[in-house]
């Protein structure tokens, strides 16, 4: 008995020494990631006099302006995740199993790598030059079809659809980058087996390929959702803060206490973290499911 | 083969999607370049580029952002390489928790991170539960703000840098390399700097370029922490100018292009993506 206790104690001290190797990393993470997050978390349960309260959280669900901001963010993120997801999938399909020449594939992948990283202020300016009031495509449509986008239609670059179109520029390339390897993972044998059993191309896609790819597609779309949901710079540069998505509202709250309740500001930030956490969990769950077939 | 059969063999839908995608990629770029070249009436010229690059504020902010990027890359390497190495070699049970932490920046977007950083570091750092001051507020002096923003950028780049380094270490046999170096009498420092680092240089380079792409044009942290970086400068320029911002936007697209092209060149693979928008 004494013997085992002794070895156990020894292994604990040994362990402690081994953990020192990762101490700097944990210290950094605590100082610059965990503590700031905990501060917001604690703040969202703190009242004006520093007392513990649920009032901020309750108020979060009562304030119509805040709910609207969340809802707008969710709508934009969902629209660009689904739109970007479908379009990105079709693009990835066309260069992997779609029968396009090989060089197009590497061109598309490289371009996607650049475009998915091209965001923020330059992206917003590029879209103003494209679809703004005097933009290139705006002028093109006017000359070709004699339609003035801004006078004859409801289109406005600085609105929901304008921002969504802009987000799409980094959304669908991200989908291409994730889906191309997944489509490569479809085994030739599956198709041959299906054909030997008399399946048509449509049947193969509906009954074999699509079910295998589905978790991967959904997971990637969730990733795109989070990608758009956390975006701030692009929206701010494009709309100058006029379109009240949740990140813009939080930005306003950081600059000055526009809600007149710091606790409510923290609660708003925590609400975002909760939504991001849920989507990341969904993503990793689906990722595990997709690894069953695609490796 | 008849001409009809030949046409049938062309994958129509694939071409359609590809062309649509190419248009989506290229039209905004073409529009930006086209616009940036029209600063002078009826003349196509580079005047907007000359004007933009002549502005001393451009050079100042651009150099400053590059300095932040270099500091971020150095800090990330110093922080992540030994950690990933140690986990691989001595502490595999820490892998899960460390990987979890490196994924947290996906849950805490830049705007939330800067919110928390400002709330923590705009007041003096004290020893918990006492009034003893360790440090004056980081946001009140220049070096302090620089430390804070570099730390923030390290956090934003953490998922990419860690994954890059970890994948790099998986492909070389870290354990054998270490044992070989040890048997030749090398110290830990020598092993990491002269054996491990050179062996994962492709991974390091791709992580570094990705971090560079995140940091140089970054706006959220930079504007809320009030540093004179390139991103906020470009944003302000866009408020009262038209042609110069377009010129700089295209220039920063080329910069991203170069960074990503280099990653492709060094890794030869799929490349990675960021999410720092």
Provide key terms for this protein:
heterodimer; A: 295 residues; mainly alpha; MetI-like fold; 78% helix; 0% strand; B: 277 residues; 2 domains; 13 helices
Descriptive account of the structure:
The complex is a heterodimer of chains A (295) and B (277). Chain A has helices at 2-20, 23-43, 55-62, 64-96, 102-115, 121-131, 136-145, 149-152, 160-184, 188-196, 201-229, 233-239, 246-255, 262-290. With 295 residues, chain A is mainly α. Chain A is globular and about 75 Å long. The longest helix of chain A has 33 residues, at 64-96. Chain B contains 13 helices and 2 strands. Chain B has 2 domains: 1-36; 48-267, MetI-like (MetI-like fold). In chain B, 45% of the residues are buried. Residues 270-276 of chain B have low confidence and may be disordered. Chain B has 277 residues and is mostly helical. At the A-B interface, helix 2, helix 4, helix 5, helix 6 and helix 9 of A face helix 2, helix 4, helix 5, helix 6 and helix 7 of B.
Describe the structure in brief.
The complex is a heterodimer of chains A (295) and B (277). Chain A has 295 residues and is mainly α.
* Ends apart, CA distance between termini of chain A: 48 Å
**Second rung of CATH, namely the architecture of chain A:** Orthogonal Bundle
Largest interface: A-B, 85 and 86 residues
CATH homologous superfamily caption of the largest domain in chain B? MetI-like
Supply the number of helical segments of chain B: 13
Q: Biggest sheet of chain B, open or closed, and with what strands and sense? A: 2 strands, antiparallel
Summed up, the domain count of chain B is: 2
Report the sheet-strand fraction of chain A.
under 5%
Structural class of chain B: mainly alpha
Q: Helicity level of chain A, as a percent range?
A: over 70%
What's the CATH class of chain A, please? Answer: Mainly Alpha
Q: Write down the Rg of chain B.
A: 24 Å
CATH topology of the largest domain in chain B: MetI-like fold
Number of strands of chain A: 0
Q: Overall pLDDT of chain A, averaged? A: 88
């Amino acid at each position: 008995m004494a013997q085992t206790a002794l070895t156990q104690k020894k292994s604990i001290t040994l362990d402690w020494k081994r953990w020192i190797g990762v101490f700097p990393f944990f210290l950094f993470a605590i100082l610059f990631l965990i503590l700031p997050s905990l501060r917001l978390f604690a703040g969202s349960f703190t009242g004006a006099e520093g007392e513990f309260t649920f009032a901020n959280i309750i108020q979060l669900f009562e304030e119509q302006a805040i709910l609207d901001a969340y809802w707008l963010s969710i709508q934009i993120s969902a629209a660009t995740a689904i739109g970007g997801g479908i379009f990105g999938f079709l693009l990835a399909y066309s260069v992997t199993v779609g029968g396009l020449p090989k060089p197009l594939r590497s061109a598309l992948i490289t371009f996607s790598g650049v475009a998915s990283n091209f965001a923020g202020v330059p992206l917003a300016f590029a879209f103003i030059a494209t679809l703004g009031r005097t933009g290139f495509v705006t002028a093109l449509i006017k000359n070709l079809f004699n339609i003035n986008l801004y006078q004859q239609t409801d289109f406005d670059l600085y609105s929901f659809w304008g921002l969504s179109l802009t987000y799409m520029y980094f959304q669908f390339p991200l989908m291409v980058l994730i889906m191309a390897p997944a489509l490569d993972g479809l085994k030739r044998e599956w198709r041959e087996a299906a054909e030997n059993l008399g399946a048509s191309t449509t049947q193969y896609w509906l009954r074999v390929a699509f079910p295998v790819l589905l978790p991967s597609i959904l997971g990637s779309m969730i990733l795109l959702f989070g990608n758009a949901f956390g975006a701030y710079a692009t929206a701010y540069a494009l709309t100058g803060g006029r379109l009240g998505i949740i990140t813009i509202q939080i930005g306003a709250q950081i600059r000055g206490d526009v809600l007149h309740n710091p606790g409510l500001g923290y609660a708003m930030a925590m609400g975002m973290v909760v939504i991001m956490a849920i989507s990341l969990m969904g993503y990793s769950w689906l990722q595990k499911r997709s690894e069953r077939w695609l490796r | 083969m008849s001409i009809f059969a030949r046409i049938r063999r062309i994958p129509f839908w694939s071409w359609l999607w590809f062309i649509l995608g190419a248009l989506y990629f290229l039209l905004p770029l073409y529009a930006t370049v086209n616009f940036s070249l029209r600063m002078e009436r009826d003349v196509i010229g580079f005047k907007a580029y000359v004007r933009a690059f002549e502005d001393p504020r451009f050079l100042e902010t651009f150099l400053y952002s590059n300095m932040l990027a270099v500091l971020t890359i150095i800090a990330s390497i110093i922080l992540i390489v030994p950690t990933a190495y140690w986990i691989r070699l001595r502490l595999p049970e820490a892998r899960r928790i460390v990987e979890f932490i490196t994924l947290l920046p996906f849950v805490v977007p830049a705007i939330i991170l800067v919110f928390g950083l400002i709330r923590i570091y705009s007041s003096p750092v004290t020893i918990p539960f006492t009034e003893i001051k360790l440090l004056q507020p980081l946001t009140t002096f220049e070096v302090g703000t620089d430390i804070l923003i570099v730390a923030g950028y390290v956090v934003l780049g953490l998922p990419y840098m860690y994954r890059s380094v970890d994948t790099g270490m998986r492909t070389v046999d870290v354990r054998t390399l270490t044992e070989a170096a040890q048997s030749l009498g090398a110290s830990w420092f020598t092993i990491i700097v002269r054996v491990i680092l050179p062996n994962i240089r492709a991974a390091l380079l791709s992580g570094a370029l990705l971090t560079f792409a995140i940091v140089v044009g970054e706006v959220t942290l930079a504007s809320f922490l009030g540093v004179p970086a390139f991103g906020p400068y470009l944003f302000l320029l866009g408020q009262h100018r038209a042609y110069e911002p377009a010129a700089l936007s295209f220039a920063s697209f080329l910069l991203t292009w170069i960074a990503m092209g280099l990653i492709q060149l060094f890794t030869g693979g799929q490349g990675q993506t960021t999410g720092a928008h």
